[in-house]
């Protein structure tokens, strides 16, 4: 198989026919056989019916139907595990990312002799809050993590077979693909793209916060180190304050009124303790999830697919 196209599907049934038509034109650069792998992530619309109709017209369409919604990143890993092509083009199915990028990505891949070409938005789509929160997330993540993630990267990317095989070796239950994409290594090149905005996103604020926490705790132990040093610093300040109080009492002879400072200290230290215990709890919960070794995606049905090469169970 020359080229595999992998597209996760969630609430995008209305875009699938156009996506297939545009992909069909775009894959002409593959100069060989290709396959379209659509992975339905428990989508509540009629995505399966639409894809089955497309498969009757085009046998290259292959379908994986998950038993429920497992999340965007898990769905992508399932799709990659079924891809058999020498090159794999990954793209979201909501048409915010243009299928026509494949041609440009392919040209860069050949010219640079690299293993991955991925899209990077010149200017992040969305309103001021989405742009500001995105800027803050990438800044904090890259500050705390040894794995550096490019700002405003897109899901869309063209990858070689050896890179995809390496990526599938990450057998993690708590998946943050942005980090895994870079942690896999190999030569990677970016391509500036303009991503269309549909105005509606399935990533609401709560999901973005959850993804941010998962990303940070998956790729950084520095938070635990900073907790230790914060505790060490507070302990040092407390000891200095004790010395100050004793010295003031012994040599000044005046007792220090401390009710307001005592209350503030109790609330401050109490809140800090709860925050740090919560962070440690998140790390412990991730260990708990990983040790259970549960499959992070379950396939309800598939059409046109052979066995998985390797990857998620």
Describe the largest sheet.
Answer: 8 strands, mixed
Strand content: 15-25%
Secondary-structure content class: alpha/beta
Taken from the alpha-carbon principal axes, the silhouette is elongated
Q: Strands of the biggest beta sheet: in what spatial order?
A: 7-5-6-4-1-2-3-8
Radius of gyration from CA coordinates: 25 Å
User: What percent of the residues sit in helical stretches (DSSP H or I)?
Assistant: 40-55%
SS field, number of helical segments: 10
CATH classification, class level of the largest domain: Alpha Beta
What is the fourth-level CATH superfamily of the largest domain? Spore Coat Polysaccharide Biosynthesis Protein SpsA, Chain A
SSE succession: EHEHEHEHEHEHHEHHHE
Low-confidence sequence ranges: none
Could you tell me how far the N terminus lies from the C terminus, measured between alpha carbons in angstroms? 23 Å
Classify the fold: give the CATH topology of the largest domain.
Answer: Spore Coat Polysaccharide Biosynthesis Protein SpsA, Chain A
